[in-house]
Structure formats: structure tokens, C-alpha cells
Amino acid sequence: MMALHIPKRIRLAKTAKVDDKRINEVAVKAAESTLSWDKISPPYFTAWHDVFTKAHGAAKEVMFMAILPSISAFLGLSKL
After folding, report:
1. Contacts of 46 by beta carbon, 8 Å cutoff, 6+ apart
2. If you write DSSP's letter for every residue of 19-80 in order, what string do you get?
3. How many Å apart are CA 34 and CA 6, to the nearest integer?
4. What is the pTM (predicted TM-score) of this model?
5. Mean pLDDT across the stretch 1-23?
């Protein structure tokens, strides 16, 4: 197997340092953001989603992003 050559300038590249305080500020602001679930989903989905997220111990928005590709695949046009 041939070894992958990585240029020296890339190997020595410095990573940007981000202040932990700034990361916490962004995390707090993100946690305060919520979606208006009544406007974007039918009631039966919202009820199912509430149970699903509680069972997994996660935020509704995070679980929605995790299941969105699967839901899209099920609802999308398919030809066999």
C-alpha cells in the first residue's frame, strides 16, 4: 500500500484557538432557541416526537435533525 504524502505546510498548520467562554455563550444561546412545532408539523407527529425524544434523552431539535433523512427517504418519490 502506498503511503499518503501530506505536505509539510499542512502538517504544521496551526489550529485556531477558541475561547471556552465563547463556546459556552454560543451553547447557551442555541439552547434557548426553539422551533414552533405547531407551525411545522402535524399534531400526531409532534406527539410521537415528544415521546421519541424523551425516550432517548435528547433535545427535540437534535432528534429531528437525526431522523429527518430517514423521514425524507420514506416520504420521497421512489421507483422500484
Report:
1. 37, 38
2. -HHHHHHHHHHHHH----HHHHS-HHHHHHHHHHHHHHT--HHHHHHHHHHHHHHHHS----
3. 43
4. 0.48
5. 69
d(CA 8, CA 20): 29
3-state secondary structure (DSSP) of residue 16: coil
pLDDT digits (tens, 9 = 90+) for 24-49: 888 788 778 777 888 888 888 889 88
Whether residue 71 has pLDDT greater than 70: yes
What is the four-CA torsion angle of 69, 74, 75, 80, rounded to 10 degrees?
Answer: 120
More confident residue, 5 or 41: 41
9: DSSP letter: H
CB 63 within 8 A of CB 36: no
> Alpha-carbon distance 39 to 71, whole Å?
18
